[in-house]
Write a structure and sequence with these properties.
Elements (H helix, E strand, L loop, with lengths): L11 E6 L5 H12 L4 E7 L4 H8 L7 E2 L24 H13 L2 H5 L2 H11 L5 E7 L2 H10 L1 H4 L1 E7 L2 E2 L2 E2 L1 H11 E11 L8 E6 L4 E6 L6 H4 L8
Parallel strand pairs: 1-2, 1-5, 2-4, 5-8
Antiparallel strand pairs: 3-4, 6-7, 8-9, 9-10
Helix pairs in contact: 6-8
Amino acid sequence: LARYPPSTKEPLIISSFGSGLLYQEFCHLCKLIAAGYRHLRLVLVDNAYTPWKQKYLARDGCCRIYCQPSTELSADMIRPAPTYAAPGTTKEALENTAASAVNNAISFVMYNEALFQFVQWFSTIPDVDVQVLLYDSVDAYIADCNLSPHEVMSHICSAIDYKDNDKLLEDFVNHMSTNTLRDDGVCIKLVTRSGEHLPGVYVEDRHRRVLHTLPLTNDHESHFAGACEECTP
């Protein structure tokens, strides 16, 4: 809250590494909304999205995947944004092309129930604007940050339990945070590192300098004690 207070002008942009089925992202957004944030842009990065993208979008390269119709997006988010017009092309035709590029991607989300329900849940909250974008690789996200830094470079990069079986994906998380965080952005990692028995929370800047560390003990297992805010009647 102190670093990024709620704003009515600019969204708080949060990127998530290995977002998967979105449980942690759901919890994070609920807490941010409860804290007063009303304009949020969530960037989900997970290679699990690749097969769906290839099947339903017929795309194999780097691309931004929208989760909402163009009418629900900020004007600056519509892609492709025409940079030139062919002779005889009208402004209305260019705008329709840009909108269709978004709407044609919605079928992808409809076939992924976790994404669909996630987007629908937050769309029902009055006075809250949550926009969701997908990338199926870190490099795809980095490429879009290079093209449109103001739109998608994040204030907060979140990486929760970033393992592939027993392999810790530290290099991938660092690659993403170094190249997609804003100058004052922070990366929040929650992971059990090699040689450790309990997880910890590590807050780093984009240069991987550790700003804060919080070791998690068994006392933090509030869900199992039924003591967390979500479990309390």
